[in-house]
């Protein structure tokens, strides 16, 4: 991942996604900062990987890109999302 020819901020964001270091609602709840941990778009599931791979809105993006089936398979294989991010890369 670190050898990709993309801006450093993209590499850092990917690394933070893989290590659950993005301050999304569910992480903030664990730190007692907020009290809502559900997805802000569909209110189903925790926000972390759900929002990137399983939410209705993200599924529309993956369908538009033509990789929805692959993303669904990868996210079912690895619940943390690293398999899906690896596939995208």
What does this structure look like?
- The mean pLDDT is 75.
- 57% of the residues lie in helices and 0% in strands.
- The protein is mostly helical.
- The protein has helices spanning 8-18, 25-30, 48-54, 56-65, 68-77, 82-88.
- It has one domain (8-88).
- It is built from six helices and no strands.
Whole-number tally of structural domains: 1
Succession of helices and strands: HHHHHH
What structural category arises from helix and sheet content? mainly alpha
Low-confidence blocks of residues: none
How many separate helices? Answer: 6
Strand content: under 5%
The biggest beta sheet reads: none
Question: Ends: how far apart?
Answer: 8 Å
Estimated radius of gyration: 14 Å
Oligomer: single chain
Mean pLDDT: 75
In summary, what is this structure?
This protein has 89 residues and is mainly α.
Q: What distinguishing features does this structure have?
A:
57% helix, 89 residues, 0% strand, mainly alpha, globular
């Amino acid at each position: 991942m670190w050898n990709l020819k993309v801006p450093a901020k993209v590499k850092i964001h990917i690394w933070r996604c893989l290590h659950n270091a993005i301050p999304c609602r569910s992480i903030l709840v664990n730190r007692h900062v907020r009290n809502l941990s559900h997805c802000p778009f569909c209110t189903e599931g925790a926000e972390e990987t759900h929002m990137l791979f399983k939410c209705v809105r993200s599924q529309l993006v993956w369908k538009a890109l033509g990789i929805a089936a692959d993303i669904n398979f990868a996210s079912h294989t690895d619940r943390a999302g690293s398999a899906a991010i690896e596939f995208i890369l």
